[in-house]
Design goal:
A: about 950 residues, 4-stranded antiparallel beta sheet, globular, B: about 250 residues, mainly alpha, two-stranded antiparallel ribbon, 11 helices
């Protein structure tokens, strides 16, 4: 018998739960690295080192990511996440790319993206330039200019003559000019010529320039002010070109520019309807680009040796609000590349008025360029050119999408706008096997048993004659295909695959763009639409739901409801209403439909879509009023909203997060079976929400579990010595809550570090007892049933957690994994729920009953096991949220993460117990069986002979 | 819950049977021929057999024939006439390891075990590679949670109904349920079934021949002499009074 139990135990050691199998990596998961919308002046074509022929596109984005993009295919060569800041500058040096974000300046190897040096200062950087000797000149917010060494980043010299006067001294001497100055001079920009640096600053409503000798760091001339008028470089500051300084006058209707070292500005009148003016320069060629709401055009200027600018020609206006111009010098000539909204590219020589070439985009899409950079190479024949333009789009809802247009051909595009996804919902695709007969099945359910049976038999007979012959014909092929075992191709269109791994996720960007991402086909964007029109500001989204099969409904905070066909992106319905929306919830009507209840800011409730007659039971919404109060609001069936409860935390505490149970949260078993076959009943309350609060003065964090219908507090806990600046994140599922916080300098008995706390709620502390619930089927918020029995345990986790998600499967049979989103590029870590189990025995080995329950000894620290990182080797950046959804397989949950990069994968927390693994080789299986059969038949006569011989030899 | 295919189940059963058959053959092939015994050892063995046979078939002989045979044998047994090694009478049994015949037997045992362990290891690895960690069938009747460990080995969820049987558990159920099939295919004393092999391993003495290492032949002869004396007291000739019986029958 020992043998028997021995072999039964054996597989327990074999099966260890892994996050992802090696052969699944890079097959079931996908990752779209995004960098965000490129910044106009910090994006450029540049050769990674002097002798390389090909150049890369370098771009610093408004997410403070510095990246090198391969212009051939749009792949990222490298990228670096810099410290997020409002001020971002990147410039090209010889073999390096130097960037400044906030107070720090760093230099990266242009070829491989490795950090060469980094130097942090006390003041924010205003501007940064590379000198001809490859040194880095930096202008800081306090007016100091520092020259940094190109190899080490050390300060070579410092120039402080723009020193801000002390705040209390309003009048002080300044340079030779002895002007009266106050303390509000603002450094603006830095310009490099061959041997000098020029600093532009603003003071006394005037623009000043100071010149510094590059070699010594001493002022070469007195600080002078340019022009006599009250020139305020207010709205528009263009730093383009090292030797050009431009600004817009206070009226906003005159653009001035000066070609340094001259100090006499040229002025260009800005026509009244112009909304955007861009000035570009390359050496002594200057282009002023005007854009109105309807069209755009440009003027080309030439600056002569004395610094006097004269207009060469003007480019005729073309229709379209958004267009972009870029200049590029090649072979002694300067070319102007003009990209029009429809992607058409026009090439000019700045010296000649006639266009050199024009390329219409073949695979045309609306590109709506915002800004662009180009590279022009004249071909040896002198009349044709190779033009490639990197364009950043201004399309409404999708600001920042980038495209590369190569001679009128869209070479590639990057959906950079999806970096700012703020909300998402899953869309179930259609099942090809039932979709055709869905009406007939529906008919069967509405007939009597006999009629339905007859209907079904006739349907089956029809199907047999219709599909049968084809099925038999395809049989050999199918069997053969099954043996070859090649990966099944994901279907396209609106069909899901057999296992339901293919789903759409509809995402909304911060700018109001809607996109459908195909999670089953490596995150391909299926369709996109915009919730805003050109020039409109998107006010956010308060709800996105799958309202019925294949339809997604979006409630915009600004007061509109839009419904799209989720498969093709066609707008089905759009309704506007006032005022703005506070909160939304999706409810089932009595007719089995789904409607959205929106609570408006005037405390009225409406049902969306409007005009639909639907009866529903009353709905309870939870609205966060302020950081000091949360309100529970009941919306009655006739849409009258009334507040039911208010939660105000104790004095000094402010509310940080509210989390509720997910809408789809199936529970397989209502109790927990212990080792001795007794049961602890789970406290399952669909209305349970968890609220976390912090008290900055007392350095405490509190957690409140609240019934969102009655408002009663089910449980609360307070932790002392908490670093309240670190986020507190929580998640709720089934009968448990998990949250994390940072425990600071140890109070008595607490460990410094990130803590994960698990709370499990049971109906009673006794086994086989339902406590105050007695024989009630479900927890009722109204009957005021007693408080749940709470078990809790705390663990130390080595990393901060940005967000939690819980795996979701179809029936909840599969055990759950908690997905913790780690900061930086660490990815997503999956912790099995059984590790975070408050019943784990503390300080002793588990006894036999506890072992059978699957408990093991409590260890305070949860180590990060690299095998459980579901993003494995991938460097995911900037993720903010993880969402999960069930597939058709009970074992598998689909995961999608957004907020920066996009990442999708599938996880099987209890291993894939309902599907054969990829390693299952049918050929090997059959080969083994055949081999064994042959061996048996070959050995049989030998054995017979031997047995007979044995008998005779005795 | 969706199940992909059921073929592996059937495949595995064939596989199990085939490996069993093959193991039986391998075991038989690996058994070495029993070594030819020397004359004295043979004499010792056969004469004991003679005594046993006489006792068992005593009824076939008339009483006087039996008595005379018995008397001769008992006298010879007590005298130790057939002993291979008459000098060692009364001495403790020697080290079984030093007995070449014993060594031979142990070698055979080891080979038998190898024939069991090697395919067992191989098939376990094979089963693990192909069939571990998924549900293969659903039992048509409900079971209590006590069966969970038995029926769902290799499945890492607590909430799955006990009706669902994992492939590994099904393998073990088959393992212990295939005996009758082997008996049918290979005859009753086959070596395909691990359970019987297992039993052998647990009680090796049962399968060994009469003079296993460590047995004292003299004591066995004396015991047999005793048995013969007892048998003499209860002798009954099968054709005693046969004439009357035949007449009665007619």
């Amino acid at each position: 018998m020992r043998f028997f139990s021995g072999v039964l135990l054996l597989p327990c050691f074999v099966a260890s739960v892994l996050g992802i199998f090696k052969d699944d990596a890079y097959h079931t998961d996908w990752h779209i690295p995004l960098i965000g919308p490129s910044l106009p002046t910090s994006t450029f074509f540049h050769q990674p080192n002097q002798d390389s022929k090909a150049s890369l596109i370098y771009s610093l984005t408004d997410r403070s990511i510095l990246a090198a993009i391969n212009p051939k295919d749009g792949e990222l060569v490298w990228r670096q996440q810099l410290k997020e800041s409002a001020v971002n500058v990147a410039r090209a040096g010889n073999g390096v790319v130097v960037s400044a974000t906030g107070t720090s300046v760093s230099s990266f190897n242009a070829g491989n993206g490795r950090l060469v040096w980094e130097n942090a200062f006390s003041q924010n950087v205003v501007d940064l330039r590379i000198t001809p000797a490859n040194k880095v000149a930096v202008l800081f917010a306090d007016g100091v200019v520092r020259l940094l060494d190109d190899k080490s980043g050390d300060v070579a010299w410092e120039w402080r003559e723009l020193d801000r006067c002390a705040d209390d001294v309003l009048v002080c001497a300044y340079g030779d000019a002895n002007f009266l100055r106050n303390s509000t001079d603002v450094p603006l920009s830095l310009h490099v010529t061959k041997s000098t640096l020029t600093v532009a600053s603003q003071s006394l409503k005037k623009l000043w320039v100071s010149t510094i000798d590059l070699a010594t760091g001493k002022s070469t001339s007195s600080t002078t002010h340019i022009s006599t008028a009250a020139d305020i470089p207010a709205k528009h500051q263009a730093h383009h070109g090292d030797e050009l300084l431009s600004w817009t006058e206070e009226s906003g209707r005159t653009l001035k520019f000066v070609a340094l070292p001259s100090t006499t500005p040229a002025s260009v009148a800005i026509p009244n309807d112009v909304v955007e003016t861009v000035l570009l320069s390359s050496k002594d060629d200057v282009v002023v680009h005007f854009k109105t709401h309807g069209e755009s055009w440009a003027h080309v200027y030439k600056v002569d040796a004395k610094g006097v600018a004269s207009e060469v020609y003007a480019v005729r206006p073309r229709l379209g609000a958004h267009s972009a111009i870029s200049l590029n010098s090649a072979g002694g000539k300067t070319y102007l590349v003009w990209t029009l909204p429809n992607g058409e590219t026009v090439l000019y020589d700045v010296a000649k008025e006639e266009a050199l070439a024009s390329y219409t985009l073949i695979n045309a899409t609306e590109i709506d360029p915002r800004h662009s950079v180009s590279e022009v190479v004249p071909r040896p024949d002198g009349t044709s050119f190779a033009v490639r333009t990197f364009v950043s789009s201004a399309a409404p809802g999708f600001v920042g999408d980038s495209y590369l247009i190569r001679n009128g051909e869209l070479a590639w595009s990057r959906k950079e706008s999806l970096v700012s996804v703020v909300a998402s919902t899953w869309i179930e695709l259609l099942d090809p096997s039932t979709e055709e007969i869905v009406e007939e099945l529906d008919a069967e359910t509405h007939k009597s048993v006999g009629a339905a049976y007859v209907h079904r038999v006739t349907r089956h007979l029809n199907e047999l004659s219709l599909y049968g012959p084809a099925w038999i014909q395809a049989l050999p092929q199918r069997i053969l295909g099954g043996f070859v075992n090649k990966g099944t191709e994901m279907p396209t269109g609106k069909w899901r695959d057999f296992f339901g791994f293919r789903k759409f996720v509809i995402v909304i960007t911060a700018e109001g763009g809607v996109a459908a991402i195909d999670v089953g086909r490596n995150g391909e964007v299926v369709w996109q639409a915009s919730l805003v029109n050109a020039g409109e500001k998107f006010r956010g989204v308060s709800g996105i739901y799958e309202v019925r099969k294949g339809h997604v409904g979006i409630v915009c905070t600004g007061g509109s409801y839009v419904e799209y066909n989720a498969f093709d992106g066609i707008e089905v319905l759009k309704q506007d209403f006032t005022p703005s929306v506070l909160s939304t919830a999706q409810v089932d009507t009595q007719g089995g439909k789904k409607i959205i209840i929106a609570l408006l800011s005037n405390n009225k409730a409406i049902a969306l879509p409007m005009g639909v007659d639907a009866e529903f039971d009353s709905v309870h919404l939870t609205v966060k009023d302020s950081t000091r109060s949360i309100k529970g609001i009941r919306v009655s069936p006739n849409l009258i909203s009334s507040p039911t409860w208010t939660f105000v935390p104790p004095v000094g505490e402010s509310i940080t997060t509210i989390e509720g149970r997910p809408a789809h949260d199936p529970v397989a078993s209502i109790g927990r079976v212990l080792g001795d076959r007794s049961v602890m009943y789970k406290y399952l309350n669909q209305h349970m929400i968890v609220i976390s609060t912090v008290n900055p003065t007392a350095a405490t964090a509190s957690i409140y579990l609240i019934d969102s219908v009655s408002g009663s507090i089910l449980h609360s806990a307070t932790h002392a010595a908490v670093d309240v600046t670190q986020p507190i994140v929580a998640t709720v599922s089934e009968n448990w809550v998990i949250y994390s916080y940072f425990s600071d300098e140890a109070a008595e008995g607490t460990a410094k570090g990130y803590h994960l706390v698990v709370l499990e709620l049971y109906e009673s502390e006794f086994k086989n007892d339902r406590g105050s619930l007695a024989d009630a089927d479900e927890v009722s918020s109204f009957k005021g049933a007693g408080k749940p029995h709470v078990l809790s345990q705390s663990y130390v986790f080595p990393s901060a957690v940005k967000a939690f998600a819980v795996t979701d499967t179809k029936q909840g049979i599969t055990s759950r994994d908690i997905l913790a989103l780690l900061p930086g590029t660490q990815g997503i870590y999956s912790i099995p729920k059984r590790v975070l189990d408050p019943r784990r025995p503390v300080g002793r080995e588990p006894d036999a009953a506890e072992k059978e329950e699957g408990l093991f000894i409590y260890t305070p620290v949860i180590e990060i096991d690299p095998k459980s990182i579901i993003t494995h080797k991938r460097k995911v950046m900037g993720l903010k949220k993880v969402v999960t959804t069930p597939s058709q397989l009970e074992s598998t949950s689909i995961v999608f993460a957004y907020g920066g990069d996009l990442f999708g994968t599938r996880v099987a927390p209890s291993l894939a117990f309902d599907v054969l693994g990829k390693g299952f080789g049918k050929i090997q299986l059959v080969a083994t069986v055949v081999g064994l059969t042959i061996a048996s038949f070959m050995v049989a006569p030998m054995v017979r002979k031997k047995q007979i011989n044995a008998r005779w030899s005795l | 819950m969706k199940k992909r295919r059921n073929e592996p189940e059937a495949d595995r059963r064939y596989l199990k049977i085939l490996t069993g058959v093959l193991r039986h053959y391998a075991t038989v092939l690996m058994q070495s021929d029993p070594k030819k015994l020397d004359l004295k050892a043979l004499k010792e063995q056969r004469n004991l057999m003679r005594g046993i046979n006489l006792r068992q078939n005593a009824g076939q002989l008339p009483l006087h024939s039996f008595i005379s045979r018995k008397n001769t044998l008992v006298a010879d047994y007590k005298r130790g006439a057939y002993l291979k090694d008459p000098e060692s009478v009364g001495k403790p049994a020697g080290n079984p390891m030093s007995d070449p015949a014993g060594m031979d037997q142990m070698m055979n045992m080891l080979k038998g075990n190898m024939a069991m362990i090697v395919p067992q290891t191989l098939i376990m690895g094979w089963i693990n590679a192909f069939f571990s960690g998924f549900v293969i069938m659903k039992l048509p009747f409900p079971l209590t949670i006590r069966f969970k460990t038995m029926l769902q080995s290799g499945i890492a969820t607590r909430d799955l109904d006990v009706r669902w049987v994992s492939s590994l558990s099904w393998y073990f159920l088959n393992l212990f349920g295939l005996r009758s099939i082997f008996n049918y295919i290979l005859g009753s004393d086959n070596s395909a079934d691990q359970m019987s092999a297992q039993m052998q391993q647990m009680n090796p003495a049962a399968g060994a021949s009469m003079f296993g290492p460590g047995q004292d032949p003299n004591k066995m002869f004396l015991a047999e002499a005793e048995n013969l004396e007892v048998a003499g007291g209860t002798h009954e000739w099968v054709i005693e009074g046969v004439e009357d019986r035949v007449l009665q029958f007619l």
